[in-house]
Amino acid sequence: MITTASSITGQNRVTLRKTLVSCAVLALALLLAIVVMSLIGSEPLPARASLCALASFGTTTCGLSRDQFDILFQLRLPRILLAAAVGGSLATAGAGYQALLRNPLAEPYLLGISNGAAVGTMIALVFFGTNEWTRPLLAFTGALLATLAVYRLARGRAGATPERLILAGVIVTTFLSSVIVFVTTLMDATRIRSFTFWLLGDLSGSSKKLLPVTIAVAVVGTLALTLHARSLNLLMLGERDAFDLGVEVGRVRIVVFVVASLLVGSSVAASGSVGYVGLVVPHLARLSLGSDNRISIPAAALGGALFVIVADTVARTIIAPRELPVGAITALIGAPLFIYLLRRS
Amino acid sequence: MRQDLQNFSRLEVRDLTVSYDHRIAVANVSLTLKPGEVTSIIGPNGAGKSTLLRTLNGQIRPSSGAILLNGQPLERLNRRSISRQIAVVAQEAELRFPVTVLEFVLGGRFAWASNAGWGWETERDLQVANAVLRETELSELSGRLMNELSGGERQRALMARALATEAPILLLDEPTANLDLSHQAALLALVRNRCDRQQASALVVTHDINLAAQFADNILLMKEGKTVQSGRPDEVLKPQTLRDVFEIEVLVDAHPVTGGPRVTPVHDTYRRS
Known about the structure:
Distance between the termini of chain B: 69 Å
Order of helices and strands of chain A: HHHHHHHHHHHHHH
CATH topology of the largest domain in chain A: ABC transporter involved in vitamin B12 uptake, BtuC
Number of helices of chain B: 9
Number of domains of chain B: 1
Radius of gyration of chain A: 21 Å
Oligomer: heterodimer
CATH architecture of chain B: 3-Layer(aba) Sandwich
Order of helices and strands of chain B: EEEHEEHEHHHEHEHEEHHEE
Helix content of chain B: 25-40%
Largest sheet of chain A: none
CATH topology of chain B: Rossmann fold
Helix content of chain A: over 70%
Shape of chain B: globular
Structural class of chain B: alpha/beta
Number of helices of chain A: 14
Number of strands of chain B: 12
Largest sheet of chain B: 6 strands, mixed
CATH class of the largest domain in chain A: Mainly Alpha
Strand content of chain B: 25-35%
Number of domains of chain A: 2
CATH superfamily of chain B: P-loop containing nucleotide triphosphate hydrolases
CATH class of chain B: Alpha Beta
Structural class of chain A: mainly alpha
């Protein structure tokens, strides 16, 4: 029996080590992706000089021309950092919604929460066009309202069944889509094209001013949900059981609602609705590292950042010099996985 | 050290009334769970048995009456300190995500964590989990996924998780529903053992009158939210009372081994010509 005890204790250490190792590996891969992907694009950059400039954090040009330097530091790097923040935010939010709604299919885009944030952003654009700060603020409000709507619709007497949740998502999504169409008619024709791109998830027109905010929200939000990981682990096994075991269900629910809505709001305000990230990434994290949120949330955040950086690099290079919205790439990968998960559940 | 771990706890219910959906589910029920004793709630479907159990744990708010845990009103205690005193064994686990048996059982240690959010299980948490896995004969399955287990094994895992909380009060909702005879006996022995050796108290909601008759120290017989009778099994399980409550003819005789009351329903269709 003593051997069993030590093997269980060992298992705990293994879990801790697994967390640290997987997060370290993902963080390294993320750093590598940021560097490598900033060299890739329609305008080729000399690798050695670019690396040298990146290593100096832009303090020296290392022989890059003025244009090359600007492409690297004014265009590509901010866009890649934004991709990382958006990917991390959406993956963390997805993991949060999945635990809260006890459903591995919950995803901000599929539940209409991204659409809620999009409506908020559009209202900010139409009515407070010059004030950029209203965008994430109203996007957050929209995401929060959409989350509450889905949650209320999905909860029947028998709790939220997967079918009910998806249906609630369809209702909220389609309703908000018509609101979006309505608001679009209030815009002038010249903006509609860039707007359609943005709706599909587009990182090209991102605002420099909002980049630090988006990154900060991604980091703080991921930490906030990770710090509730044990409660979320129990919530995944049912609200009633979680309550029995000592989780303050009401408080944790509010934390997830607010934090996940903030994450979705800030990323939608910056880049539109990049779909399926919140589905694909947490699923892969759980598949490879298990369902323990103490591991899977930080891993999903790092993995989400990586995923969107790569997807966006594909989006901006595959038909260069023209670009695709990154949401088109993530949906191409995510939709088949969704079908697979739906068939299995 | 751990201040709120006591050898025993006392749960007292006074004049409890619970109503929801404009319907009174529990009406003026009083009962006391004493250390070392098993109390069983029996009664027909819809008698308010499960509602009463959920109210005792703070999940459902009573409309009037008091629930006192060691003399303190339940609503004044925080969630985690209640969970260190009262554990619930539900009928079925909801499993939408893959978790291992060990992870599942360690969930019972949540209320003991110094940090409610992050943080890892302590050596002691793992020792407790290991001990209850052994008690419930699940040690060999600890690395398996919960949804790969049989219904009976899952029920034992639910029991193991409740025992892992080390709570001195156990509330069990139909704990033997999915178990075969030998596992029923094993599970009841676990409950009995906690009561006898560690001065725990248990409240068991069951449909199995004979299980209650042989196993419980006290029985609370309920119908339509009200207490019909409460007391020792031989005081409560009288033919006339049972006939009135369950609306079926019954025969009560002495159990050949324990000598306690044994209830046999006698339905018209049982009589063969």
